[in-house]
Amino acid sequence: MNDDTTSTTTLGDLVVYVEGGVADVAVPLGQASLNVADLAVTRGDGVFESIGVIDGRFIELDRHLARLAHSAAMLDLPVPDLAAFEAAARRGLAAHRPEPELLVKLLYSRGIEGADEASGWIQVLTGPDHSGHRRDGIRAVTLDRGYRHDIAQTSPWLLQGAKTLSYALNKAALREAERRGADDVIFVSTDDIVLEGPTSNVLVRHGDRFRTPRTDLGILAGTTQAAVFDTLDAMGFDTAEAVISSAELASADAIWLLSSGRLIAPVRELDGAPLAVDAEFTATLLQKTFGLGPA
Ligand code: PLP
């Protein structure tokens, strides 16, 4: 790393570039630059991961690295150097000012147009404060994703299930939720199957049964969901990936949205209908899964 920029551990948000597969520079975010011809910028042609860090510990690092490789394979990108990404992530985190919670993004693009060399970099940042949503819950609306549930099989070129850099649609859906007076979205297929949120997986509870949509439904395999299932299994609950209809969603005893930054957010209102929030149970899951104490 460059001593000028990383001689202190009080840096704020910063990026570490991974050039030629080796992380060698850490610079504050305001001084970072990216080639304007990089296909990440011009086409959104790349993949990424967003990893939660709590008290300096990476959450589900191995699952994130594996998913980066999986997404890259879906886009026919060169195999990413995961060891270099991990080293960059660790060095970036070490260079950042410590915070109770941070996010580390791994970004991997097809590189500069015509150069035939992938480019990658990481970014360490302080995410928004999610404590209110974790405790009090969020308002969600269901939105039609415009796809059938079997899109991953029928049309793999649509890249459903890869974590690509093209998030404009996901952001548009979140703005639509806001227009409808909600905080977040649960996408439903045209044939009425529950899919995922624009940045989250869905967890549905009926009694002691916990279900999440199957990953062959054209959705991202969630690292947070996998970690939460490990906890629920250890607690003796009945967990499974399933095909969940909108009617089953509407009749749920409880629903949560799961994602790396926000971790576990109970849904307190679905399409305008109030839903019970068991704050104590959510707090238990947050503690057992991520070692997160009360806000
Ligand atoms: N689904 C989508 C579309 C996402 O973008 C994300 C995360 O950003 C998730 C699910 C949740 O994945 P994870 O828990 O690994 O963050």
Can you offer a commentary on this structure?
With 295 residues, the chain is α+β, with helices and mostly antiparallel strands. It has two domains: 3-126, Aminotransferase class 4, branched-chain amino acid transferase, N-terminal domain (D-amino Acid Aminotransferase, Chain A, domain 1), CATH 3.30.470.10; 131-290, D-amino Acid Aminotransferase, subunit A, domain 2 (D-amino Acid Aminotransferase, Chain A, domain 2), CATH 3.20.10.10. The protein is 29% helix and 28% strand. The chain has helices spanning 3-6, 39-42, 61-74, 82-95, 131-136, 151-154, 168-179, 223-234, 246-250, 279-290, and strands at residues 14-19, 22-28, 46-54, 57-58, 101-109, 119-125, 138-144, 184-188, 201-206, 209-213, 238-242, 254-259, 263-270, 273-274. The strands form two sheets. Strands 7, 8, 9, 10, 11, 12, 13 and 14 form an eight-stranded mixed β-sheet that branches. Strands 2-1-6-5-3-4 form a six-stranded antiparallel β-sheet. A hairpin with a 2-residue loop joins strand 1 and strand 2 (22-28). The radius of gyration is 19 Å and the shape is globular. The structure holds pyridoxal-5'-phosphate. Pyridoxal-5'-phosphate binds at residues 50, 196, 198-201, 220, 222-225, 258-260.
Outline the biggest β-sheet: 8 strands, mixed
CATH superfamily of the largest domain: D-amino Acid Aminotransferase, subunit A, domain 2
Average pLDDT figure: 92
Outline type: globular
How much of the polypeptide forms β-strand, as a percent range? Answer: 25-35%
Number of domains: 2
Unreliable residue runs:
1-9
Number of helical stretches of at least 4 residues = 10
Give the CATH level 1 class of the largest domain: Alpha Beta
The tally of strands reads 14
Give the SSE string. HEEHEEHHEEHEHHEEEHEHEEEH
> What small molecules are bound in this structure?
pyridoxal-5'-phosphate
Distance between the termini: 35 Å
Rg (C-alpha, Å): 19 Å
Helix content: 25-40%
Q: The CATH topology of the largest domain, please?
A: D-amino Acid Aminotransferase, Chain A, domain 2
The assigned structural class equals alpha+beta
